[in-house]
Amino acid sequence: MERQVKVCVIGCGPSGLLAAHACRQDGHKITIISDKIKKSIMAGAMYIHESIPGVTPKLPDGKLLIEKRGLPEGYASKVYGDPAHPVSWTQFRTGDHNIWYMDEAYDRLWARYKRYVRECEVTPLRMDEIIRHFDLVIATLPKPAVCYRDHEFNSVPIYVRQRRLGRDTIHPNVMTYSGMHQDPWYRKSTINNVVTIEYPQRPPNDDYYAGIKPTSNNCDCWPRVLWAGRWGRWEKGVLVHHVYQQVKDALLQV
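Now predict its structure.
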């Protein structure tokens, strides 16, 4: 390392702490800011596709069996209302995949980097001040929060029901995609003893989390900021482990 880089990471969710980890591995000085100093709520299938040095074991935590019901066009129609929309269904083959548990990785990151988190509300005005103060700013907060022009942010609603199974029995890791009309859900998973069911419309039960899935945007505000993670980039198909390599590459350019 030729010089120590002063880095500000905005957001303390899995992507933000993973960005901080990538910086600290190379000895850079980090400050993490977030509107609240608390762990993020994670909803959906919680796993990592690749090992991350210093965060996950080299060997996978387990295997994940991916199953599919129906056709990808049916799945795309459920999730995005468009049978031709690109979907993760086609990205991942059926069968067994190596996985690392995201909830456990996030616990490790939180224990290691919580002390670096400072409470701060990030606004467009404050963004300008942050950029002037740091060599590199990595933003993982929802991008619309600091957009200062009339840009377009596309998303689709999601509804998630989640429950943790008892630890006395270890359940196999399975994730099922459904493109079948008779299934009200589009993805169902059991990962690390956590059952998750994702719906495109509000389920009849009351025990659900309602949110959105970012899909695309045309925002070009703050070009000097490195937008990382699904919320920061506000794109579909962004996986958690992508943040690690994205930050490592960016540090080489600072």
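The first helix runs from residue 14 to 25.
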